[in-house]
Amino acid sequence: MNKRKAIPSHGQPAETILAQMKEMKSGDPNWADGRTWSLVYHVDDEHRALMQKTAQLFISESYANPFAVESIQRMELGLIGMTANLLNGEGSATGTVTSGGTESILLALYAYREWAHSSRTGKKKNEIVAPATIHPAFEKAAHLLGLKVRKAPVDHLSRARIEEMEKLITEKTLLLAVSAPSYPHGTLDPVEAASELAQQYKLPLHVDACIGGFFLPWVEQLSPGSIPPWDFRLPGVTSISADTHKFGYGAKGSSVLLFRSMDYLRHQFFITTDWAGGIYASATLLGSRSAIPIATAWAAMHSLGQEGYLGITRNILDGCARLRLGIEALPELAILGEPCMNILAFTTRQNKPDIFVIADFLEEKGWVVDRQHRPNSIHLTVMQHNLPAIEPYLKDLQEAIAYARNNPDAKARGNAALYGLMARIPLRSMVANNVRQLFEQLYGAETAKSESPSGASSQQMPNPPSWMGWLNRLLSGWRK
Ligand SMILES: Cc1ncc(COP(=O)(O)O)c(C=O)c1O
């Protein structure tokens, strides 16, 4: 007997459905109160209303074929042009709008692979050389494309070490990649040196500016000279990914991938001519594409204008400076890396007190805490809606430190303990298997039948299997 829930036999009224969804949503993190330091790139209610109206306007369109819907085509080309202008790609730079950072990175790698393989000598090129801090999207893309990421160690400020990257270059190297900035610590890699290296070895260089692409240009305008050039001004940079669904302030689902010229981009296009449905061609990864992400990103740029972006960036940078000062005033804490924009990661000196005890305390105070490892730390991205929460956060952070100081034997609990444990397990395949089990549990037929995940969510790990408890006890003796 099929026990799965069927589509309701009778449709329900819109109000009932909306009420049900609001009820489901009530358990989600309330990002609007500023206690969530990531994921939502909010400007203000007025901007949000424009995004909603724009989404309504383009709810039905399908952008499978870029020649079929002129309005969306114009907006996509507009976004490409404005982004190329912002990132100093005047002249030949061009690209496409994708569904997000991961797709942009995947397509960049794909285009370079096809470009290299189109020449007789490039057939064995299948490695990407990047710093250890590069976003996992590169590894995912490499995995899907049959490529390999070779990671070079970073320096004490978590910047790419170009001489270490150079050591990994072989005849198999397909491209180099660096971040502007990297996500964990908000550190800008030395892109100028990477550009020279790329030119020296005649290799393409991708700059992952997924998070910084629509933020760093305004930082540069607000304080000229504060950031070294990192975009198409550098002759070795051959492509850049910049996410419009992050600091471009469009709705989720869009990013711009730019190449220095059509010489690379043309290898991204997929065309097949023999299908019974007709000639099929697509410029990006997806088939049918929603028009909404493109339209909202376009509307965001036209509504905010350069003045708007500059104003928001100024506010955020002011807030971020206050937050940083507050963190640095606590002698137990240290900022990691060399933050160049509004991303801060901090830890405790010699992990005393345990940073995850601080994380637990903050969580109990109602903050959504992003934990990182290697080294263990707390990650913050300051958005406009976080600004009123900065002082309350610093107050709770002070309390957390005082608590940890007075309770030196306190141990990280719950998720933090599990996360800390996972970070410490030397056999990474064991950790990966455990995470895979969580996914299997979430997407397994049993969960799908009940329609409610068995405790698993993106924020919360479900209970670990029993062997994890055993392992935890075993490893606890090794902890500092
Ligand atoms: C530097 C960097 N690269 C790539 C990505 C991946 O972007 P997305 O999550 O939109 O796929 C992110 C996401 O935060 C990022 O910060």
What topology does this entry show?
Layout lengths: L13 H12 L19 H13 L12 H17 L7 E5 L2 H17 L9 E5 L4 H10 L2 E5 L9 H6 L5 E7 L11 H10 L4 E4 L7 H7 L16 E4 L12 E5 L2 H4 L4 E3 L7 E3 L9 H37 L4 E3 L7 E6 L6 H10 L5 E3 L4 E5 L8 H17 L7 H11 L3 H16 L1 H6 L15 H11 L4
Parallel strand pairs: 2-3, 2-4, 4-5, 5-6
Antiparallel strand pairs: 1-7, 6-7, 8-9, 10-11, 11-13, 12-13
Helix pairs in contact: 2-10, 3-10, 4-5, 8-10, 10-12, 11-12, 11-13
Bound molecules: pyridoxal-5'-phosphate (PLP).
Q: Going by CATH, what is the homologous superfamily of one domain?
A: Type I PLP-dependent aspartate aminotransferase-like (Major domain)
In DSSP terms (H or I, runs of 4 or more residues), the helix count works out at 16
Q: Would you list the SSEs in sequence order as H and E?
A: HHHEHEHEHEHEHEEHEEHEEHEEHHHHH
Shape: globular
Largest sheet: 7 strands, mixed
- Per DSSP E runs of 2 or more residues, the count of β-strands stands at 13
Which residue ranges are poorly predicted, with pLDDT under 50 across at least 5 consecutive positions? Answer: 453-467, 469-480
Give the integer mean of the pLDDT values: 91
The percent range for helix content is 40-55%
Sequence of strands across the biggest β-sheet: 1-7-6-5-4-2-3
CATH topology label of one domain? Aspartate Aminotransferase, domain 2
What percent of residues are in strands? 5-15%
CATH domain class of one domain:
Alpha Beta
Question: At CATH's second level, what is the architecture of one domain?
Answer: 3-Layer(aba) Sandwich
**Which structural class best describes the helix and strand composition?**
alpha/beta
Bound molecules: pyridoxal-5'-phosphate
Radius of gyration: 24 Å
User: N-to-C terminal Cα separation, in Å?
Assistant: 54 Å
